[in-house]
Amino acid sequence: MDRQSLPQQDKNLPRSYDHEREVVIPPLDLAGTLNIPGGAQALVVFVYGSGSSRFSPRDRAVAQALNEQAIATLLFDLLTEQEETNRACVFDIELLAKRLIQTVDWIDRDPMLSQLPLGFFGASTGAAAALIAAAQRGDRVGAVVSRGGRPDLAGRMLNEIKTPTLLIVGGNDFGVIELNEEALLQLKGPKAIEIVSGATHLFPEPGALEAVIDHAARWFDAYLMKDKMKIRSPQ
């Protein structure tokens, strides 16, 4: 299945947001989709793992659920089309973190987005990139949620992360559970781990993704929306 066919899977899903626009993020013109619900109180940037993109049905489902909770979302591709075919780039955590930091800088130059509390939702290797970026942009990033992530790949940076971090892992994702538990011990800020019973790495089981959404929404509500900051809906 090619990337152009994936968005059609969402045509019949409810559009709970008031404003959607395609964006181009410098300096590499990375493609992204920004959804801003009316009265948005926070912004969550999605950070994908290997082989995924902004058209991931799983992440789009999570994003739509967050939109319903007055959280704006940005789904963007961390790699160019040429880089996506290079396995070295796909697993280059420092490169992915650099792209995420560039995206945060772009957000902070936008008068409408810069006022919103900011969070990251990372999956697989993208979770490690999100944690590294949070360590380097500490005061700007209010919360991180990892879905089936590899936080261990953040390495020594784990000891520098004070950002409130939630690790969500499938109960049948053996090996990854242990890596998340070990990473949890190294994090310095508010932290928690949620193990979704019966779920595997991609959470395809009935009710598994809904559990991810519930845990993520609660975490972002607790750490991003406490000040109830709002922006005016685009006209």
Describe it for me?
- By secondary structure, the chain is α/β, with parallel strands linked by helices.
- The termini are far apart.
- The protein has one domain (13-224): Rossmann fold (3-Layer(aba) Sandwich), CATH 3.40.50.1820.
- It has helices at 57-67, 81-84, 87-90, 93-108, 125-136, 176-186, 208-224; strands spanning 19-25, 30-36, 42-47, 71-76, 118-123, 141-147, 165-170, 191-196.
Short characterization:
This protein is of the alpha/beta class. 32% of the residues lie in helices and 22% in strands. It has seven helices and eight strands, in the order E-E-E-H-E-H-H-H-E-H-E-E-H-E-H.
Topology (elements, then pairings):
Blueprint: E1 19-25, E2 30-36, E3 42-47, H1 57-67, E4 71-76, H2 81-84, H3 87-90, H4 93-108, E5 118-123, H5 125-136, E6 141-147, E7 165-170, H6 176-186, E8 191-196, H7 208-224
Parallel strand pairs: 3-4, 3-5, 5-6, 6-7, 7-8
Antiparallel strand pairs: 1-2, 2-4
Index terms:
disordered N terminus; eight-stranded mixed beta sheet; Rossmann fold; 7 helices
Flag low-confidence runs. 1-17, 228-235
What is the CATH topology? Rossmann fold
* Protein structure class: alpha/beta
CATH class: Alpha Beta
Q: What's the helix-strand series?
A: EEEHEHHHEHEEHEH
- Kindly state the percentage of residues in helix: 25-40%
Identify the CATH architecture.
3-Layer(aba) Sandwich
Total domain count: 1
Mean residue pLDDT: 87
**What is the H level of CATH, i.e. the homologous superfamily?**
Alpha/Beta hydrolase fold, catalytic domain
Main sheet: strands, sense, barrel: 8 strands, mixed
* Beta-strand percentage range: 15-25%
Assembly category: single chain
Strand order within the widest beta sheet = 1-2-4-3-5-6-7-8
Report the principal-axis shape: globular
- According to DSSP, the number of beta strands is 8
- Please work out how many helical segments DSSP would assign: 7
- Our measurement of the CA-to-CA distance between the termini, rounded to an integer number of angstroms, reads 35 Å
Q: Radius of gyration, rounded?
A: 16 Å
